[in-house]
Every structure is written in structure tokens, then in C-alpha cells.
Design goal:
This protein is of the alpha/beta class. It has one domain: TIM Barrel, CATH 3.20.20.150. Helix content is about 45%, strand content about 15%. It contains 9 helices and 8 strands. It has an 8-stranded parallel barrel with strand order 1-2-3-4-5-6-7-8, surrounded by 5 helices. It is globular.
Length: about 250
């Protein structure tokens, strides 16, 4: 199990500062969502090599997967993202799905998504990069988002049928959407490439809410999972102090 931080963990600091801090804390990667905002990919690649830690995940362009009229734009965005990821050594691309379309049958939207992802699959397989669909909660943060439940999300992955299209399972979102976190986080393990963690309510660091992250991460670790777990959260105290507390109170106990 490898731990990543997300850009913004240190407000106002750039990706290089974050990478240095990740190295300092003994973590393993940085999630930098909008890679197109990086001014110089060559410089970032060189800094990653110098520091010994790199960007572990990025997002693709935020284009709806359920709107068939946007399919070509989505595919172009994935193509561009794969090229950026190749230059940076990134192996995971996070994709949201966009909001459900009014007046269009849900099954039709799901078929559109599956077909678009099937067209992405050969590009991803050739590049050795995994695209991760992310279910998001519609109750608090992302009202109307198409994919919310883990079972439907896993079904989409199954229909695409590529080892390079999987899920990022966000414990915070799934706690709000459906609960039953440990059963779903482990039951769908073969479709999951990566986890996000934050406590609920508040989306702050583990230990500030209702989720027992010692038990959750212990269960995930027990499946043999050795991928990334990303701290996608805000912090109620100084970031360094919060990370030290997380290491002592959670990581040391799993």
C-alpha cells in the first residue's frame, strides 16, 4: 500500500514543494489533477527524478462521458492526457463521468459511456496506463453526477472489459452515497486501481469524523492491495502535523 498526497495539501505551494514534502514524509506519490496547468512538463519530469518521487495520478479533461455528442472531445482529451502522462511517468488517469442528462434514458447514457471507454481502451493498453472512473456522491458535493454507486460503477468496468479501465474508490464519497464501506471497498477489489480517503463529515484528514480508517485500511491491505491510497482531504491543523498524526494513529496500526 502506497500513500499519495493531492495537490493543495499545502495551500499556495506548487507541485515541486508538494513532491519534496511527500519525500520528507516517506510517502510515495502526488496526485496532480489538472496537468494542463503545469507550465513545463520537462522541468517537472526532471524535478521528479531529482527528488525521487513523482506524480502518481492525473485527471483527464473534464468532459461528459454520458453525452454522445461529446465523445470525440472526450477521446481527444484522453489522448492528450496519455501523452502528458508518458512524459511524466504517470500510470493512472482519473475520470469523472459528468452529470446525468435530463430526458435521456439512464441505460442509454450508460451505453454511451461504455462505448466511449471501449474506444479509449486500446490507447490505454498500448500506453500501459489505467483510466479510473470515479463515482462521486450526489447528496453533498456533486449533485446529479452520473456514477455514484460502487455496484453500478463496477458493472460499467465489467462491460468495458479492459484491464486498463478500472475505478478509483473514494471512501468519503461512498460513505455518503451508500455506506457499507469495508464490504464494497474490498468486494470490488479486482475493479479498483486506487483509493481516495477523507473523513466524513467535513472531508478533512482521517480521525476527524466517523470513519474508522484503521479498520478500513487494514481490510484493504488484507486483500493484498499494493496500489495507491490518496489523502484527498483538507486539514484542520497544520498539514505536517496532521500527516504525522495520520502516520502514528492510522498507518502504524494497520
Amino acid at each position: 500500500m502506497r500513500i499519495s498526497l493531492c495537490i493543495g495539501a499545502y495551500p499556495g505551494k506548487d507541485e515541486i514543494y508538494h513532491l519534496e514534502k511527500i519525500k520528507e514524509h516517506g510517502f510515495h506519490g502526488l496526485e496532480y489533477y489538472a496537468w494542463w496547468e503545469l507550465n513545463d512538463l520537462t522541468r517537472v519530469a526532471k524535478e521528479q527524478e531529482r527528488i525521487g518521487v513523482g506524480i502518481s495520478a492525473a485527471c483527464t479533461k473534464f468532459i461528459s462521458l454520458v453525452d454522445e455528442s461529446l465523445r470525440d472531445a472526450y477521446l481527444a482529451g484522453v489522448r492528450d492526457t496519455i501523452e502528458a502522462c508518458r512524459r511524466l511517468g504517470v500510470r493512472s488517469i482519473i475520470s469523472q463521468t459528468g452529470n446525468a442528462l435530463d430526458g435521456v434514458p439512464r441505460e442509454s447514457q450508460r451505453r454511451t459511456m461504455v462505448e466511449t471507454l471501449k474506444r479509449c481502451a486500446p490507447m490505454l493498453e498500448e500506453a500501459g496506463i489505467v483510466l479510473e472512473l470515479e463515482p462521486l456522491n450526489g447528496l453533498v458535493d456533486h449533485r446529479g453526477h452520473f456514477l455514484q454507486r460502487s455496484d453500478e460503477s463496477a458493472s460499467v468496468v465489467d462491460q468495458v472489459g479492459s484491464p486498463n479501465v478500472k475505478l478509483v474508490f473514494d471512501v468519503y464519497h461512498q460513505q455518503i452515497t451508500e455506506g457499507n464501506v469495508i464490504r464494497n471497498a474490498t468486494g470490488f477489489i479486482d475493479r479498483i486501481n486506487h483509493y481516495h480517503i477523507a473523513d466524513n463529515p467535513g472531508r478533512k484528514q482521517p480521525g476527524t469524523g466517523e470513519l474508522n480508517y484503521v479498520n478500513i485500511l487494514r481490510a484493504i491491505k488484507g486483500t493484498g492491495f499494493d496500489g495507491f491510497v490518496g489523502l484527498e482531504c483538507g486539514y484542520t491543523i497544520d498539514t505536517d502535523a496532521a500527516l504525522e498524526q495520520f502516520k502514528a494513529d492510522v498507518l502504524a496500526k494497520i
